[in-house]
């Protein structure tokens, strides 16, 4: 059974090519994402506001448990690709010359097949696993309770007596790197391709092919995603209202730029 799935995923992935791109092409994705944001500002910013509000809710619920909150916010980066589905759909509609609206987002979130649901569940498991690992690590190995960002800075980041922060970063990287490699183009591809062309495993394999063929541009893209998301978080989450839609739209253009489709 596993061999059959592997062979099918390989066939599906090989039906798509990977375009060559220069190192700084991710800057172009940001430019096109910014353009899409302001071509559909209402629906884009409203989705960004909902996501930022969810982050604010997390902060309110766990504002005195920063040992948990630090993992939750970093875990957000793992599940963000599936949360951006509505932005992908809006950019696809703009590419087609249409005018995206709430109907575009609704149709994206209510797919006719379960591939996006399966991917979302897998990412949710990954995010939950990281939150639990992060919380256990911070709560179990700090010399004092970590209730505030200052506590995290003092007892984790600046704690010279312990390699806890380095271990926390390393553990996060070990989990985040394969998740990111699996999602670079996978979810936009699933949204864009019919079920009979591409399954979940085929999409993941295609995403890994993109990463392996373009490690430097994709590393730059990952750094840009992380940097801009951190900027949004540093503005008391207000900046995420604009930054999350911007990155979501840009991620669609990353997929369109990197992957050649059968009808291209």
From TrEMBL:
**What are the record keywords, sorted?**
Membrane, Transmembrane, Transmembrane helix
Q: Where are the transmembrane segments?
A: 42-61, 67-90, 116-141, 167-191, 218-247
The name this protein carries in UniProt is DUF2189 domain-containing protein
């Amino acid at each position: 059974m596993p061999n059959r799935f592997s062979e099918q995923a390989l066939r599906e992935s090989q039906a798509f090519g990977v375009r060559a791109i220069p190192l700084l092409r991710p800057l172009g994705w940001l430019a096109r994402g910014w353009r899409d944001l302001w071509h559909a500002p209402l629906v884009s910013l409203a989705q960004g506001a909902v996501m930022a509000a969810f982050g604010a809710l997390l902060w309110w619920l766990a504002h005195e448990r920063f040992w948990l909150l630090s993992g939750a916010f970093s875990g957000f980066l793992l599940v963000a690709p599936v949360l951006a589905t509505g932005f992908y759909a809006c950019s696809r509609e703009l590419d087609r010359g249409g005018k995206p609206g709430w109907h575009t987002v609704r149709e994206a979130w209510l797919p006719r097949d379960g591939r996006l649901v399966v991917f979302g569940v897998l990412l949710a498991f990954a995010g939950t696993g990281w939150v639990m690992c992060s919380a256990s690590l911070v709560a179990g190995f700090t010399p004092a309770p970590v209730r505030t960002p200052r506590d995290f800075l003092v007892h984790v980041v600046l704690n010279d007596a312990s390699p806890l922060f380095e271990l926390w970063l390393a553990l996060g990287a070990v989990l985040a790197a394969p998740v990111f490699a699996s999602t670079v183009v996978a979810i936009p591809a699933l949204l864009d391709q019919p079920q009979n062309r591409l399954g979940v495993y085929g999409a993941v394999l295609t995403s890994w092919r993109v990463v392996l063929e373009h490690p430097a541009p994709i590393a730059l893209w990952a750094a840009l995603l992380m940097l801009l998301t951190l900027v949004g978080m540093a503005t008391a989450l207000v900046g995420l209202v604009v930054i999350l839609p911007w990155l979501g739209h840009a991620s669609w253009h990353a997929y369109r730029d990197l992957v050649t489709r059968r009808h291209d």
